[in-house]
Amino acid sequence: MSAAPTLYILYNADASVMGKLSYGYKKLTNKDKDKPTCAACDITHGGLSLDETPQWKAAKKDLVESGAVKDVKQFHRDELDQDTKGFVQSQGLQFPMVLAQDDGSGLKSVMSSEELATFKGDPQTFLTKVREQLGGNQSTL
How many beta carbons lie within 10 A of that of residue 52, not counting itself? Predict the structure, then answer.
């Protein structure tokens, strides 16, 4: 049995002040509810909040405590290291996305931006799907 992977949630936004303002503008002017500006942001922060939602904090804690993942790391586009940037570019992936990495192995794509959008910002639905994708423990909050 392999060790639990680290889960990486990559946002379709930048961490800078201008990045946050740009994201906020795009979020407020987006008329297509089936293609959110950043579905990962909706899941973890409820949209425009700078703070994680209590539901996301509980889901993240459950993923780690159940052993489904070793850790959950969240990054904006402008916070990625060169290896992660290179992987995203080489695979032609679109932000936002979820990646996973086992100790000693490379990154793998777990969820696409389209799949994240289907969760409609619900951390519980995301939690269930992550467990399915990773073949992990199916307990719920």
Answer: 17
Quick: pLDDT tens for 13-53.
888 877 777 777 776 777 777 677 888 988 999 877 788 99
Percent residues over pLDDT 70 in the chain: 92
Distance CA 80, CA 132 (A): 26
Q: Which two tokens stand for residue 99?
A: 């990646």
| Residue 140: band (very low, low, confident or very high) from pLDDT cuts 50, 70, 90 | very low
Strand order in the sheet with 71-75: 71-75, 6-10, 97-101, 107-111
Q: Do residues 12 and 38 lie in contact, with contact meaning Cβ atoms separated by under 8 Å? A: yes
The answer to whether the bond into 5 is cis (omega within 30° of 0) is no
Q: For 49, what's the count of Cα atoms within 13 Å in the CB-facing half-sphere?
A: 12
DSSP conformation letters of 89-102: HHHT--SSEEEEE-
For 135, the token pair is 């073949």
